[in-house]
Amino acid sequence: MTDKAAWGPGPWRDEPDKEQFTDEATGLPCLIVRNSAGALCGYVGVGEGHPWFGKDPGDLETRTAFEVDYADLCQEGPEAETICHVPAPGEPDRVWWLGFHCSHAWDISPGIEAREESLHGWEPVRLAGASYKTAACVKVLCAVLAADAVAAARSSRRALDRAQGAGNCAGGPIRGL
Prior knowledge:
Layout: E1 18-22, E2 29-34, E3 40-47, E4 70-72, E5 95-101, H1 110-120, H2 135-166, E6 168-169, E7 172-173
Antiparallel strand pairs: 1-2, 2-3, 3-5, 4-5, 6-7
């Protein structure tokens, strides 16, 4: 658990450092994990067979407000601190986590602010319009990413169905169908 004593007042005081949930609309596993800057990060897990499984985050097309900049299997280490989940019944334990962080220049990162004040005596400098992304906000962003993941799987499935319907494509059979 993160020591938030020096962080000052804010919504981070009452938020967990890690939260696991299932996106209601898609059924995909999701995580919210606090990073070392004190900001929250959101993650959506896709199982093997999903077109995004094993992909680099730069290869994904998403509508999330923040760039997907993380992709990996479960991390090793203490469950309360790692990007990994406890699978719900019927949920795969091997998932590819796709994630984003909320500690950009325009985001409030209470851990960084507290460190700078403690080490250097600097008061927090915030850009105009800077805001802290709450757990509720990160859940919404996870839902958007989860919906994009489901849409990508449907699109991939439609392309596969079209390819199977084509049968003999470009002078030869399509392998693996």
